[in-house]
Amino acid sequence: MHQAPPFRAVYRFFLTAPVFIATAGIYLAFGNNSVFDTHISSQLAGFVHLVTLGFLTMVMLGALMQMMPVMVGAIIPRPILFSSLVYYPFTIGLLLLVAGFITNAYGVELLWLLLTSFVLLFFSIGLYVITILSRLLGFKVKSPVLTNLKLVVLSLGAAASVGLILVYGKITGNFFAFEPGMLSLHLYWALAGWVFSLINVVSFQIVPMFYVTPEYPLYMKKYSVPLIFTTGILFTFSWVIPETYVTLYKTLVGVVWAVVALYFSTFTLIRLSKRKRKLPDYTLLFWKLSMTMLALVSLFWIIDTIHPLIAREKFFLISGILFLVGFAVSLVNAMMYKIIPFLSWFHPAGKGAMDTPNMKEMLPDKKIKIQFMVFFAALVFLLLSIFYPAWFLKISGSLFIISSVLLWLNLVACVKVYKKYYKKAENQNSQNG
User: Fold this and answer.
1) Which helix (H) or strand (E) holds 217?
2) Can you tell me the mean pLDDT for 384-402?
């Protein structure tokens, strides 16, 4: 843990993420009711990127910077400078990208927004991917964790590359870039290759560490992420498949992901049921909700492949919400409630402030439980909004705003503890030495 970067290099990512979910809530609560009219629209793209980039990727960029030195010993030089060079262009680029989507949805073409976002996101994500990969590739020793991290970062690069091609196509009017195949490829690398795979890698470390469960078996650590990555490579080159078989080929890609996801979610729920520490822990509510939603979307996908259940538009919207909000956002909430209090205690205590409040003291379970209840209600109303937007969309958006504010306040309380006791430890050390 002493190889980890300074906490202030990463907590900015964690504290910014809830702001973007709150912004997504504002978008739902105060926009019009047509965001879920189709699964391919500028309105929906704005909402989705607030969640995927603004919340999920924002947290994951910080979490990977924090955990990489601990998991594999890969240290990023000048971490505070690196963090700033990634954080500020990424945040500004994302805001401009979403603004471009929203203005387009209302019939205003401001291509300079997309062009500027293209440059900023290209720089920040490119710098992040190249820097992290260069550190990981410097290790000669092979291990499942190291291999998985390389594949996850490559997946982020692939998702960003296809996404930037789509933005370039919008700017230049090259509509080839908007073919459904390109959009599907972007979604696969972003959601399966980046979000799902990184959650796998982090879960393999966090679940046994924080919940005192048996370790995940070696075969899961060795094969789940490479399988998702290999499937993505095959999907990427699906254009070489004869047109007669393309639909079947893409269906098989989806089923492979769904089977891996179903196995992971079921296995994790079983692992959590076997935890040795039986004390109440309300972060488990987020874990159980997350794994249940992942299992549901996996089953939904597999069954619908065999026998279509509902219209395609509704299928993609339900699947997207179950995966993005039900699974990914839930799980990232749970992870932040473990990572940030732990780091807020660890850094001051490591400096000698042994009276630093522990994780439970700085973040009582009651606060987590209240935020979970609001979040769960927001998710339920969001799903209902697909069918009855006029009734439920604004309620869901309002609840997401409240949930995000509660999450932000909980995390800020931990960071305040860190700042207070870290400064105290520094003062004591300077007096002693």
Assistant:
1) none
2) 93
Confidence of residue 3 (pLDDT cuts 50, 70, 90): low
Burial of residue 91 (number of CB atoms within 10 Å: 0-12, 13-18, 19+)? buried
| In contact, 107 and 48? CB cutoff 8 Å | no
CA atoms within 13 A on the CB side of 53: 26
> What is the C-alpha to C-alpha distance for residues 378 and 291, in angstroms, rounded to an integer?
18
Distance CA 179, CA 431 (A): 65
Q: Cβ distance 182 to 108 under 8 Å?
A: no
Six-digit token string for 188: 């696969």
For residue 414, the Cα-to-chain-centroid distance in whole angstroms is 21
* Angle, alpha carbons 125-130-136 (nearest 5°): 125
Rounded CA-CA distance 386/2 in Å is: 47
Give the whole-angstrom CA distance, residue 268 versus residue 219: 14
Identify whether the C-beta of residue 232 lies closer than 8 Å to the C-beta of residue 188. yes
Query: Is the CB of residue 328 less than 8 Å from the CB of residue 265?
Result: no
CA angle in degrees (0–180, nearest 5) for 317-92-77: 110
pLDDT per residue as tens digits for the range 129-173? 999 999 888 777 788 889 999 999 999 999 999 988 888 777 777
Residue from 45, 66, 288 nearest 186 by CA: 45
